[in-house]
Specification:
Blueprint: E1 3-12, H1 13-20, E2 26-30, E3 36-40, H2 41-44, E4 52-61, E5 67-72
Antiparallel strand pairs: 1-4, 2-3, 4-5
C-alpha cells in the first residue's frame, strides 16, 4: 500500500547551490502531518528555478518508507 506525504519546500538559490556543490547532500523538512522527511538533494534538481526550489510537493512512498515518486502540486 503506497502512502503519500505533502511537504512545502522553500530553498533559496544560494542555499540550493550549497547542495549542488556537494557540501550538503540531503534536505530535511517536515511533512504537513508532522513527520520528518529526509530527501536526497538530487531529487530536487528537476524542480530548481532561478530563485531556488519553492512549492508544495506530494511524495509517494512505499511500505518500506522508500520514495517512489515526487511531484510538484503547487
Amino acid at each position: 500500500m503506497m502512502q503519500s506525504l505533502i511537504i512545502d519546500i522553500h530553498i533559496s538559490a544560494d542555499e540550493y547551490l550549497r547542495h549542488y556543490r556537494g557540501t550538503a547532500n540531503k534536505v530535511i523538512c517536515r511533512a504537513r502531518d508532522g513527520r520528518t522527511v529526509q530527501l536526497p538533494t538530487g531529487l530536487l534538481q528537476q524542480f530548481v528555478a532561478h530563485d531556488g526550489v519553492h512549492g508544495t510537493f506530494r511524495l509517494h512512498i512505499d511500505d518500506n518508507n522508500k520514495l517512489v515518486k515526487a511531484e510538484r502540486i503547487r
